[in-house]
């Protein structure tokens, strides 16, 4: 078994890792860290939630020098991910005194320019905003020793390729380049190898593309039923934290509105929501102020929020890779998670394609009945009561309880209490704008190698803008999309 001390790390990094509370390296860390430490270019592929950030973070931080200015660059497809990666690198880098600054669109650029005066050694950036800084000469990349593309396939796929090439052209050729993702379609790998030097492919072998600790279900449901099915499931399962993925921004807004009408604490996140609000939603979701985050695919990649027990694909994702990443927001670091995908009858073929690519069958679940919901709500009440008992938090009510029990039998009193505390299923009518089902295209040979599906055309708006809205105001060529 590999341990962190087998890597021959500096004492600072060794200490940093033990401060993180990591007892042993995950498989991708065990395989990737030694290769990256040797200075080799590398493509790292391992399932979601298995510690890829630390797999590149440790060698990256090991190579940083306190004195030399910006020497490390991590690129990420979304703003939230850039922030998260910077936070993790700062946690690990603290012992050595290495600072990482997140650079992302939607945040005041002058504030970023001021923060750059603190001389960070690493930048974790979204491509668009980084290019703004390069154009303004507020960031220079001529000292960069190592570049990491986190969620590389996504960035190359979604039309960031020109941006990436532009950024890489500013970085000395002797640099080391690392690519990480849970998915790496072959054609993207081929594309990536163009700007790498003889890269080593480090792939954690697994039978399935998804981790086994996520239980995967699907429900066959007509478009019109979906919302009721969602709230029934929420009632039955009382998730600690849940992410609901919708296909478009409008869809996300409508689902949030519906959930709030039915009394759930939910907020949405997508590319048209101002960044300060997006940051707030993530904060409130992390601290449990809201229990449900409704999102487009902008939240599908990389986000590591502990406590996400459930993922609901309110709309089936466009492609298998998106499915893998979306459900990977739960079941992280060995924890258990549940994933539900809603499929309309005409989308069943599309579901099959996803299953073929992920090599994992989803289990069919029946549509929950009214009775199931009542039972679920009762169980939720009982759990709450048990928690109060566990916390020994009821002494003020003891006398009242004793006096009630003098006149009425205990079962009657308790049943009435349960009734009072149990949420009745809320049937406030909610009407969503219908979305067209996703049409499948039978996979020809090598499905994963073909360009992304034609379905994307219609949703160009939400995917494109979500990913590229951090480019600032300059007019750049739109992404190539079929
Ligand atoms: N060696 C380790 N031991 C225990 N926990 C770890 C270890 N390494 C990382 N983790 C934790 O595992 C969680 C997932 O890590 P991380 O976000 O890096 O996953 P990932 O592989 O990048 O996933 P994704 O593909 O979704 O981006 C984090 O909370 C991280 O702190
Ligand atoms: Mg990651």
From TrEMBL:
State the compartments where it is located.
Cytoplasm
Keywords, in A-Z order: ATP-binding, Cytoplasm, Helicase, Hydrolase, Nucleotide-binding, RNA-binding, Stress response
One MF term in GO for this entry?
Answer: hydrolase activity
| Stretches the record annotates as Disordered | 437-482
Motif stretch (Q motif) = 2-30
Give the EC number: 3.6.4.13
Indicate the segments forming the DEAD-box RNA helicase Q domain, all copies: 2-30
Annotated ranges, domain Helicase C-terminal? 213-374
The UniProt entry lists the main location of this chain as cytoplasm
Q: Which reaction does it catalyse?
A: ATP + H2O = ADP + phosphate + H(+)
What Pfam families would the database entry show? DEAD, Helicase_C
User: Could you tell me which InterPro entries the record lists for this protein?
Assistant: DEAD/DEAH_box_helicase_dom, DEAD/DEAH_RhlB, DEAD_box_RNA_helicases, DEAD_helicase_CshA, Helicase_ATP-bd, Helicase_C-like, P-loop_NTPase, RNA-helicase_DEAD-box_CS
Q: Which residues form the Helicase ATP-binding domain?
A: 33-202
This protein's record includes keyword Nucleotide-binding = yes
Q: Which residues cross the membrane?
A: none
Family, according to the entry, reads as follows: Belongs to the DEAD box helicase family. CshA subfamily.
Q: What does this protein do?
A: DEAD-box RNA helicase possibly involved in RNA degradation. Unwinds dsRNA in both 5'- and 3'-directions, has RNA-dependent ATPase activity.
Name of the protein: DEAD-box ATP-dependent RNA helicase CshA
Q: Supply the source organism for this entry.
A: Robertmurraya beringensis
